[in-house]
Write a structure and sequence with these properties.
Helix 4 packs parallel to helix 7. This protein is mainly alpha-helical and 325 residues long. Helix content is 70%, strand content 4%. It is elongated.
Length: 325
């Protein structure tokens, strides 16, 4: 952790990420006490004081007002007269929530199935590996769009519980299922290697009765040695889940209107470019900063947990430079 504490770039982006998350969590406070409007409140016929004169929130030609840099419509309005700053924070809450839930689903599926396939081998490994390959074979966005559109129309009824078409859990579930093989396959490969180690053989010799013996070995011997890999993968999956959610929402297969997300805000803004370019820039910049911050933290975490990775990258870079010379 000392290496992480010395990484000033990672600390700076970590502070930025904390600020973004805090602002998004405080969205109701900002909407109620500062902007005095909700994320779905329309103000098409309203006016706002800008520079001492009253300006239409949405002009007669349909172009919304740009940033006023005041409490009301700080970052402008959209085509329906909704406050962009309010929707940006509420959209961030939705995007971060989906990213976190999707990451939890991804890591749970990957840890359980990847460890099971790697340790058990044989028929279990064959079936689970083919499942990984089946999901892996489809591009994540295309598979996500297909599943997202199907579930957005009719929701999901599993008997014990039902997810309606507007639920944020639907895009989180879709992303979790689409992404999990990207983590499960490396965990399977590492579990295959670990099962041949001496400490695992020693655990088998202790005579744990099957099948509880295999489960106990996986939990007590294999999983602790996968922890560093899991910790490194988790923030990377968060970043990818947020990006994939934005892509699905942009294409209409993620968060459904009127609920805001950064992806839906970008999609709405593209229809009014270049007259209202702030509708694309504001959520786009927030999305880039969030994903960049998570990725920088993930790299710093990997370097702190595996210092040799930095040495390998440095050596590879030096070899590449010598090859070009």
């Amino acid at each position: 952790m000392n290496a992480f504490a010395r990484n000033r770039v990672a600390l700076a982006f970590g502070a930025l990420l904390v600020a973004i998350v805090a602002l998004c969590l405080l969205a109701p406070v900002y909407a109620h006490d500062v902007a005095h409007t909700g994320p779905n409140d329309n103000h098409i016929t309203d006016t706002v004081n800008v520079g001492g004169r009253q300006v239409d929130v949405v002009s007669p030609t349909g172009v919304p007002i740009g940033p006023t840099w005041k409490a009301r419509f700080l970052l402008g309005a959209d085509s329906n007269g909704r406050d962009v700053a309010v929707r940006l924070l509420y959209g961030g809450r939705n995007s971060l929530e989906i990213g976190a839930i999707a990451t939890a689903i991804t890591m749970l599926l990957a840890i359980v199935l990847g460890t099971l396939a790697g340790y058990m081998r044989g028929l279990t490994d064959g079936v689970l590996s083919r499942l990984f390959d089946l999901v892996w074979a489809y591009p994540a966005v295309l598979l996500g769009v297909a599943l997202g559109v199907a579930l957005a129309v009719g929701g999901l009824d599993l008997g014990l519980f039902t997810l309606h078409s507007g639920s944020l859990l639907l895009p989180a579930l879709v992303i979790g299922v689409v992404v999990f093989p990207y983590v499960a396959k490396p965990l399977r490969a590492q579990a295959l290697s670990l099962r041949e180690r001496e400490f695992v053989d020693a655990a088998r010799i202790m005579g744990y009765p099957p099948p509880l013996g295999s489960a106990r070995i996986m939990v007590s011997e294999i999983l602790p040695n996968l922890s560093s890999t899991i910790v490194v993968f988790a923030p990377l999956i968060v970043a990818n889940a947020i990006l994939l959610e934005a892509a699905l929402s942009y294409l209409g297969a993620g968060v459904q209107a009127p609920s805001p997300s950064w992806g839906t805000m970008i999609a709405d803004g593209t229809r009014l470019m270049p007259g209202a370019i702030h509708l694309v820039l504001v959520p786009g910049i927030m999305l880039v900063l969030t994903v960049l911050s998570v990725n920088v933290l993930a790299d710093a975490t990997r370097d702190a947990l595996d210092p040799k990775a930095t040495d390998r990258r440095s050596t590879g870079s030096a070899i590449g430079q010598r090859g070009r010379l």
